[in-house]
Amino acid sequence: MTRTGRGGSHRSKKKRIVVALAPLAALGLAVPLMYSAGAATADEVAADCRTDSDKLENCEFVDVQNKVNSLGPNERVTSVTDNCGITSTATKTFSGSAAVTRVIQLGDGSVVDGGVKLGNSIFEIGGKFSSTEINLKRDDTTSSFSFTRSDTVKADHIAFFMWSHKRTDVSGFLRATYKEAQDGQKVFFSPSEGAASVHVFYPQLLASGAPDGRLWLRNVQCGTPQADGIINSEGSVRAEPGFGEGGANVTDVEIPLSEVSQ
User: Fold this and answer.
1) Which terminus in the chain has less CB density within 10 A, N or C?
2) Which CA distances in Å does 254 have to 112, 216, 244, 246?
3) What is the mean pLDDT of the chain?
């Protein structure tokens, strides 16, 4: 009788222990599940702002810092003139054109087209940094210029014009306000509040409204890897070194924009 009584008591304790642990285990699982179903991530915020998502009430760019006279990409803006195998210089006529527009670049390198919601704050911040000394292209339309000019091509060289536009680089972060609260809040940031990894590049303009920047004539010695690479890439996109960065076989001469017939 005594052994039976002890055995029953032991089984009862086991049950009580199991019942006591079950809610704790369930609670432990519930916490991460609730957390993972929560607020918008930085990537989601960026994607929603980039696509002008219907989930957003608003998306704004918040500026943190800026840098004026930042140079844009190095672009070849004329065709290549070939003076290879010729032992004398030649005067050639070059015709070219270049265009600039405002660019919104996220931290991952992707570009935003400046949708309705985001575009408003982008325009306003451009106004903040525009001045009598520096006129910025604040909207998303294109500004361009064309030129025709005669210049000297060195003996046994190829030549072409390069261009890099001046711009004001304003960096900051995105602040998105959602229509519906997530985990009790509606405002989220990308990549984070106070960050400076979202860039808005505002082209700087001359008084005429044409893009400001650096224009230069580049001569490249024929028969060199640099010249062969350029000749073989004619008509295609190719990354070029900046002014004075082409190496021993490359000669760059800057042309003041005031001397260019536009």
Assistant:
1) N
2) 33, 4, 10, 14
3) 85
Whether the model pTM is above 0.85: no
Tell me the pLDDT tens digit for each residue of 182-197: 888 999 999 999 999 9
Contact 234, 243 (CB under 8 A): no
CA–CA dist 105, 59 (Å, integer): 15
How does pLDDT run across 104-153, given as a tens digit for each residue?
A: 999 888 888 766 788 889 999 999 999 989 999 999 999 999 999 999 99
The span from the first CA to the last CA of the chain, in angstroms, equals 112
CA neighbours closer than 13 Å in the CB half-sphere of residue 228: 3
96 burial via Cβ count (<10 Å: 0-12, 13-18, 19+): buried
Helix, strand or coil for residue 257? helix
Q: Which residue has the tokens 């509040």?
A: 193
Q: Which of the pair, 183 or 95, is modelled with greater confidence? A: 95
- SS3 assignment, position 148: strand
Partners of 96 in the beta sheet? 147
Token reading at 89: 């210089």
- What residues have CB less than 8 Å from 216, skipping those under 6 apart? 161, 162, 163, 243, 252, 253, 254, 255
Residue 55 one-letter amino acid: K
